[in-house]
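Here is one chain, start to finish.
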Amino acid sequence: RSGGIVVLEKGKEPLSTKISPALNKMLGKRDTVSFVLSEEGRDTMFAYTPISISLGSGKVGFGGSYESLDHMMGNRGEFWYVILSHDLSEMLGSFNQGVYAIMWTGAVLILIMAIVALVIGKKVSLPVMRMLSETKKIGKGDFDVNIAISSNDELGDLARSFNKMAKDLKETTRLKDNFISLVSHDLKGPLGTMLGFLKLVRDDEAEPPGVGQRRILDGAMESGQNMVSLIENILNISRIRNGKLVPKLGSMDANMVAVKAMAGFTHAADEKGVRLVNKVPEKSYIYADDALFGEVIQNLVSNAIKFCNKGDSITIYIPDGEPTTIAVSDTGVGINSKRLDAIFNYEEKTSTTGTAGEVGTGMGLPLSRDIMKAHGGELLVESTENKETVFYAKLPDIK
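Its structure:
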């Protein structure tokens, strides 16, 4: 009771004998309150609320609107309260334990979920990434791919379908290359015969052709020779892809490779006013197939002349620190950066008209790249439009 006369706490001494003055003061507010009191270094949490108790009599009650027994004895204006108290440190200790338990449980669950997600993610993503990598190989014409996935789920079915597709593409490509090889071989003979007859007519001293006729014959012979070169390139491509054109490696002087390449195009360079420069030192030995590697350098020189203007220059040299690399640079019109990745692909039409109207097949650079790959090397290019283009024919290091 608010007056502190008969207020009791179960199992303890009457609260009236030790009730806190601060608590007693709070009880006078006659409302429901919770608060913390600090006494003698101990924090205690209190909660209290006033209550109304009746004995069922219309005249007698405890704390109600009617007079109570105490009221009749003169204790008017007092109220009854229910008071709960607990040591704050014990309450917070139990609360903190619960919080820590929840936190640790949540952390363990998150860790388990992360591990499960990682395992499932790898199970799905790794095969997909592998298929993506193999797809890129197929896009570059390499059909020797196989995805080793033996599972019986959807990914396994996809992998098996992918492997079958790659196998079918390889066989289709082989048949196509064989067909092209046969047709090209059958065309080469008759074309050579036709060129031989045209040359005889043009060079006939008994009945020499007139100026106009000779011009026509020269044009026909040039077209025929271009056709023979195209057929030869097609045959070489077919041989390389079928593994029938294997480089016969041997030691050779890189300087002589450059000399031979330039010798074959001196006339074409002179006609366009393009200067040919050989900076390859004598006795710079490399290990390659003389004919095939020489064809690569010739293709690069021919291509450079095609895109040079009067006053430009073409230089063959060995880059510093790269003794097994031959570089061919020119000061011509350069190559658009968007076309750099496509110039080595057979599947894309990359041939453009030269500065003097020259036309090409677009096969020279892809064939040169395949020849370098057959050597275990690579063909790279750097270019700045209207400034410079450099091709690097890189052979593997030989110890």
